[in-house]
Amino acid sequence: MAFEGLSEKLSAAFKKLRGKGTLNENDIKEAMREIRLTLLEADVSYKVVKDFVAKVSERAVGAEVMESLTPAQMVIKIVNEELTALMGGTVAKLNFASKPPTVIMLVGLQGAGKTTNGAKLAAYVKKHNSRRPLMVACDVYRPAAIKQLEVVGGQVGVPVFQQGQGDPVEIAKNGIKHAMDHGNDVVFIDTAGRLHIDEALMDELKNIKAAVNPTEILLVVDAMTGQDAVNAAQAFNDALDIDGVMMTKLDGDARGGAALSVKAVTGKPIKFAGMGEKLDQIEPFYPDRMASRILGMGDVLTLIEKAQMNIDEKKAEELEKKLRQNRFTLDDFLDQMGQIKNMGSMQDLLGMIPGVDAKALSNATIDEKAMPRLEAIILSMTKAERENPSIINGSRKKRIAAGCGQKVEDVNRLLKQFDMMQKMVRQMSSPGMMKKAKRAAKGRKKGGLFGLFS
Fold this sequence. Notes:
The protein is an alpha/beta fold. It is 57% helix and 9% strand.
């Protein structure tokens, strides 16, 4: 889980502060020492750590904290604000050209994930910005790079322009001409990478930049490489004056050093983060939300957005009617599980809930294979059984278990879970709860998840 190690150690440092009714300068110094060590262990740049701790210390020893009724909470608030500022302060959006096409040049070292994440970003702007993207294959050196781009482009429904193993500069120029002729208003140029930074790579990228005058140059870096990612960002920025960073594999980076260092070192913001292997697992980088996750405060806004993106509004309205009539069936249960599954890893979703301890969560058994098993059991039932589970007797249970390759005990477990869910639904569908839900949902798009995000 992203920032797991960092979150755990910062939480431990703050726990010591919470145990004290008042704080003095020595308490603050001790906390800052632990925060300094934690950040250095997280592979954050030494200079960045030094500046960060100095800013927090300066604010934390002032009257703002010392005279507060809850000084420990005030220190956490200051750390949260400074972490947010460190990562850029506000969300940095893509710049779109006033006169199409917008040209976005993707650069980075080999293995950082330019091709896959370029496809993710193209799919994102297609869906969320109503654009017509085109991807241009300018990596003419890596074996099968062009084929890979065509495959991922096909998977996300984005066309790919390629001219084989030709001159990357000419291919880029021809790709933009093709986009203008065919109505594509955003062009993603997938450039070549190297295993390390060299003069030939930078010269080629400079030539492409001079030829196409890109609207944005996005550097793709692998979060798991820590300080190496930051060093690469510095080198690419010095050579190309990049506009922003797309950080990949952030979901697997337990330390977080790259995410915390890159803005401070290069002055350029992280614009997008890859949060998984699937081609829809990319999201804008929100510094304030990321700071909240790091400090164990959750990220409810992203959780709600994920719910709204993956939940069918029409189905949500139908479910609401069923809730009112107390007609929640196993089909509804299955449908809701599918919508939750589309939102991503259950562990990541739980990590966005405020108050969930990252360490406790890492030790919890979250069986990601449970949903497919439950789905198999439900699909082995007849329509009548799914509508009215009370008719499922012993012989029916044996038939259902045999039909899906599970045990009768698994069928019993599912029916017990569904019974508990039905009781919860009855409570939620009571007139008082429905009124509260409506008040909470006023002005917000309807959601699902049993109405929790409605």
